[in-house]
Write a structure and sequence with these properties.
The chain is an alpha/beta fold. The protein has five helices and eight strands. Helix 1 (5-12) packs antiparallel against helix 5 (133-150).
Protein backbone atom coordinates (compact mmCIF):
# COMPACT_ATOMS: atom_id res chain seq x y z
CA UNK A 1 0.00 0.00 0.00
CA UNK A 2 1.26 3.49 -0.86
CA UNK A 3 0.22 6.52 1.18
CA UNK A 4 1.27 10.11 0.58
CA UNK A 5 1.42 13.06 2.93
CA UNK A 6 -1.23 14.60 0.67
CA UNK A 7 -3.58 11.71 1.52
CA UNK A 8 -3.66 12.94 5.10
CA UNK A 9 -4.57 16.38 3.74
CA UNK A 10 -7.15 14.95 1.34
CA UNK A 11 -8.81 12.94 4.12
CA UNK A 12 -9.82 16.18 5.85
CA UNK A 13 -10.43 18.55 2.94
CA UNK A 14 -12.74 19.87 1.65
CA UNK A 15 -14.59 18.04 4.45
CA UNK A 16 -13.64 14.99 6.49
CA UNK A 17 -14.39 11.83 4.49
CA UNK A 18 -13.49 8.29 5.55
CA UNK A 19 -13.73 6.98 1.97
CA UNK A 20 -12.11 9.71 -0.17
CA UNK A 21 -8.51 8.44 0.07
CA UNK A 22 -9.61 4.81 -0.42
CA UNK A 23 -11.67 5.66 -3.51
CA UNK A 24 -8.87 7.73 -5.03
CA UNK A 25 -6.37 4.90 -4.58
CA UNK A 26 -8.84 2.52 -6.24
CA UNK A 27 -8.97 4.89 -9.23
CA UNK A 28 -12.63 5.80 -8.82
CA UNK A 29 -13.61 8.72 -11.01
CA UNK A 30 -14.13 11.97 -9.15
CA UNK A 31 -16.33 14.88 -10.05
CA UNK A 32 -14.33 17.47 -11.95
CA UNK A 33 -13.29 20.48 -9.88
CA UNK A 34 -15.65 23.41 -10.06
CA UNK A 35 -14.66 26.95 -11.11
CA UNK A 36 -14.01 27.99 -7.50
CA UNK A 37 -11.71 25.00 -6.92
CA UNK A 38 -9.81 25.83 -10.10
CA UNK A 39 -9.29 29.45 -9.01
CA UNK A 40 -8.05 28.32 -5.59
CA UNK A 41 -5.68 25.79 -7.20
CA UNK A 42 -4.25 28.43 -9.56
CA UNK A 43 -3.84 30.94 -6.72
CA UNK A 44 -2.00 28.32 -4.69
CA UNK A 45 0.35 27.55 -7.58
CA UNK A 46 1.00 31.26 -8.12
CA UNK A 47 1.67 31.78 -4.39
CA UNK A 48 4.25 28.96 -4.47
CA UNK A 49 5.94 30.21 -7.67
CA UNK A 50 6.18 33.78 -6.34
CA UNK A 51 7.84 32.47 -3.19
CA UNK A 52 10.21 30.34 -5.27
CA UNK A 53 11.23 33.45 -7.23
CA UNK A 54 12.53 35.06 -4.00
CA UNK A 55 15.44 32.59 -3.86
CA UNK A 56 18.47 33.57 -5.95
CA UNK A 57 19.39 29.92 -6.56
CA UNK A 58 17.60 26.62 -6.07
CA UNK A 59 17.61 23.02 -7.24
CA UNK A 60 14.32 22.16 -8.96
CA UNK A 61 13.38 18.51 -8.47
CA UNK A 62 9.83 18.78 -9.83
CA UNK A 63 10.66 16.71 -12.93
CA UNK A 64 11.53 13.02 -13.22
CA UNK A 65 10.16 9.81 -11.85
CA UNK A 66 9.33 9.53 -8.18
CA UNK A 67 12.35 7.28 -7.56
CA UNK A 68 14.69 9.67 -9.44
CA UNK A 69 13.39 12.59 -7.38
CA UNK A 70 13.84 10.66 -4.11
CA UNK A 71 17.44 9.84 -5.04
CA UNK A 72 18.18 13.42 -6.18
CA UNK A 73 16.71 14.79 -2.94
CA UNK A 74 19.17 12.68 -0.92
CA UNK A 75 22.07 13.66 -3.17
CA UNK A 76 21.30 17.38 -3.06
CA UNK A 77 20.83 17.36 0.72
CA UNK A 78 24.17 15.60 1.21
CA UNK A 79 25.78 18.20 -1.09
CA UNK A 80 24.16 20.94 1.02
CA UNK A 81 22.09 22.63 -1.69
CA UNK A 82 20.80 25.92 -0.20
CA UNK A 83 17.23 25.44 -1.50
CA UNK A 84 15.66 22.23 -2.77
CA UNK A 85 12.32 22.79 -4.54
CA UNK A 86 9.80 19.93 -4.76
CA UNK A 87 11.88 17.41 -2.82
CA UNK A 88 10.64 13.82 -2.64
CA UNK A 89 10.91 11.67 0.49
CA UNK A 90 9.97 8.05 1.14
CA UNK A 91 9.88 5.67 4.10
CA UNK A 92 8.29 2.35 4.95
CA UNK A 93 6.06 1.79 7.96
CA UNK A 94 3.53 -0.65 9.30
CA UNK A 95 0.08 0.83 9.88
CA UNK A 96 -2.51 -1.34 11.57
CA UNK A 97 -0.60 -4.46 10.53
CA UNK A 98 -0.23 -3.39 6.87
CA UNK A 99 3.17 -2.59 5.36
CA UNK A 100 2.98 0.84 3.72
CA UNK A 101 5.24 2.99 1.64
CA UNK A 102 4.75 6.60 2.73
CA UNK A 103 5.70 9.40 0.34
CA UNK A 104 5.90 13.15 0.71
CA UNK A 105 6.78 16.08 -1.51
CA UNK A 106 7.45 19.19 0.57
CA UNK A 107 7.57 22.38 -1.47
CA UNK A 108 10.90 23.56 -0.05
CA UNK A 109 13.89 22.28 1.90
CA UNK A 110 15.89 25.30 3.10
CA UNK A 111 19.46 24.78 4.30
CA UNK A 112 20.51 25.86 7.75
CA UNK A 113 23.79 24.83 9.40
CA UNK A 114 23.74 21.04 9.67
CA UNK A 115 20.09 20.52 8.72
CA UNK A 116 17.13 21.66 6.64
CA UNK A 117 13.93 23.54 7.36
CA UNK A 118 10.85 22.05 5.70
CA UNK A 119 8.58 24.76 4.28
CA UNK A 120 5.29 24.25 2.48
CA UNK A 121 3.37 27.01 0.69
CA UNK A 122 -0.32 27.38 1.48
CA UNK A 123 -2.70 30.23 0.75
CA UNK A 124 -4.59 29.88 4.02
CA UNK A 125 -4.20 32.75 6.49
CA UNK A 126 -4.99 30.79 9.66
CA UNK A 127 -2.91 27.67 10.10
CA UNK A 128 -4.09 26.26 13.42
CA UNK A 129 -5.16 22.87 14.70
CA UNK A 130 -8.76 24.13 14.71
CA UNK A 131 -8.81 25.83 11.31
CA UNK A 132 -6.51 23.58 9.28
CA UNK A 133 -5.38 20.43 11.08
CA UNK A 134 -4.76 18.82 7.67
CA UNK A 135 -1.92 21.27 6.95
CA UNK A 136 -0.28 20.58 10.31
CA UNK A 137 -0.67 16.82 9.78
CA UNK A 138 0.88 17.05 6.32
CA UNK A 139 3.88 18.96 7.70
CA UNK A 140 4.34 16.43 10.50
CA UNK A 141 4.44 13.63 7.93
CA UNK A 142 7.09 15.57 5.98
CA UNK A 143 9.10 15.94 9.20
CA UNK A 144 8.80 12.22 9.95
CA UNK A 145 9.84 11.32 6.40
CA UNK A 146 12.83 13.66 6.63
CA UNK A 147 13.90 12.05 9.90
CA UNK A 148 13.51 8.55 8.45
CA UNK A 149 15.57 9.56 5.40
CA UNK A 150 18.39 11.50 7.08
CA UNK A 151 18.38 9.97 10.61
CA UNK A 152 17.84 13.35 12.23
CA UNK A 153 14.88 15.69 12.52
CA UNK A 154 14.54 18.81 10.37
CA UNK A 155 15.46 22.15 11.94
CA UNK A 156 11.76 23.03 11.98
CA UNK A 157 8.52 22.85 10.02
CA UNK A 158 7.16 26.04 8.44
CA UNK A 159 4.18 27.18 6.43
CA UNK A 160 4.59 30.06 4.01
Amino acid sequence: MILTASDFYTYQRPSKCDLRVYLRHRGEEESPPGPYDEVIRRLGQLHEKVHLSTFPAFVDLSKGTREERIQKTKEQAVKGAPVIYQAALKANAELDGVRCEILGEPDFLLKEPGQYVIRDSKISRRITGKDHPEILNQLQIYGWLYEQTFSKPPARLEVH
